[in-house]
Amino acid sequence: MILTAATYFFGASAALATLLMLFQRDPVKAAMLMLAALLSTAGLYLTFSAQLLAALQVILYAGAIMTLFIVALTVTPAAWRDKPGKGSFSRILGLAAAALILTELLKVSAEFKTVVFSPEFSETGTLDLARALFGRFAFQFELLSLVILTSIVAAVTLISKRKAV
Amino acid sequence: MSAYSLSAIAFTLFSLAAAGFLTCGSLVRMLMFLELMLNAANIALVALGSPAVSQAYAVMLFAIAAAEAGVGLALIITLASVFRTLEPGNIRELKG
């Protein structure tokens, strides 16, 4: 009962933060609302008994990625980043497209009738995850280091090219 | 909890982020909403999949999201310094 209520609470707070972000003009305040949405997601992971994912969500998303965004916002001049958004027609078109996506997704998921997780908190989620990552998915997990390395090289190349220009 | 309720939470988050992506006028904001879309997909994966396997995929998606954010922001900073704007409508050529 408490876990079900917590799931709805964290889901609603993440949705509310994302909704407020849509109408927030100040980019730093928008970044703070994004942080609230990401922390609510960490809460959602806790209710799913995914403790490691909740910790990774706080460290990676709410920590590292948010820091990157704040750095990007501070190095770009205010005159470029604070321009008003697209025209009202484009906005309405975008909102209509998003509403259509939501309707279709909900229509498809109406078929899901199964109960997916028991409302009891489990403490063995991390152990099962570690067994999967270092057993069945060990090769894919190691390949991720290559992905990260490639992205680091790409980012450094892009920024150094900019300095050369 | 039914799968429908959990998927409704994830899909609502995804649609709100998609609405932001389609309506905002700045590249940094677009990337922020893109991250939130990926986050919503991750929630759907963890909520609807079998516990250990879906969580393993979610960990891999975390790494991919971090890589994507790093490359995306480097691209945006480079584009901003070349074109002097963050508005995607003003960037009309991508010649290297």
How would you characterize the overall build of this protein?
The complex is a heterodimer of chains A (165) and B (96). The termini of chain A are far apart. Chain A has 165 residues and is mainly α. Chain A is globular, with a radius of gyration of 20 Å. In chain A, 81% of the residues lie in helices and 0% in strands. Chain A has helices spanning 2-23, 27-47, 51-75, 78-81, 88-109, 125-136, 138-164. Chain B has 96 residues and is an all-alpha fold. In chain B, helix 1 (3-23) runs antiparallel to helix 2 and helix 2 packs antiparallel against helix 3. Chain B starts with a helix and ends in a 13-residue tail after the last helix. The mean pLDDT of chain B is 88. The chains are: A mainly alpha (165), B mainly alpha (96). At the A-B interface, helix 1, helix 2, helix 3, helix 5 and helix 6 of A face helix 1, helix 2 and helix 3 of B.
Head-to-tail CA distance between termini of chain B: 51 Å
How much of the polypeptide of chain B forms β-strand, as a percent range?
A: under 5%
Q: Average pLDDT value of chain B?
A: 88
Largest sheet of chain B: none
The largest contact between protein chains, plus residue counts on each side, is: A-B, 89 and 70 residues
**Unreliable segments of 5+ consecutive residues of chain A:** none
Briefly, what is this?
The complex is a heterodimer of chains A (165) and B (96). Chain A is mostly helical.
What descriptors fit this protein?
heterodimer; A: 165 residues; mainly alpha; B: 96 residues
Write the layout of secondary structure elements.
The complex is a heterodimer of chains A (165) and B (96).
Chain A: H1 2-23, H2 27-47, H3 51-75, H4 78-81, H5 88-109, H6 125-136, H7 138-164
Helix pairs in contact in A: 1-2, 2-3, 6-7
Chain B: H1 3-23, H2 27-48, H3 51-83
Helix pairs in contact in B: 1-2, 2-3
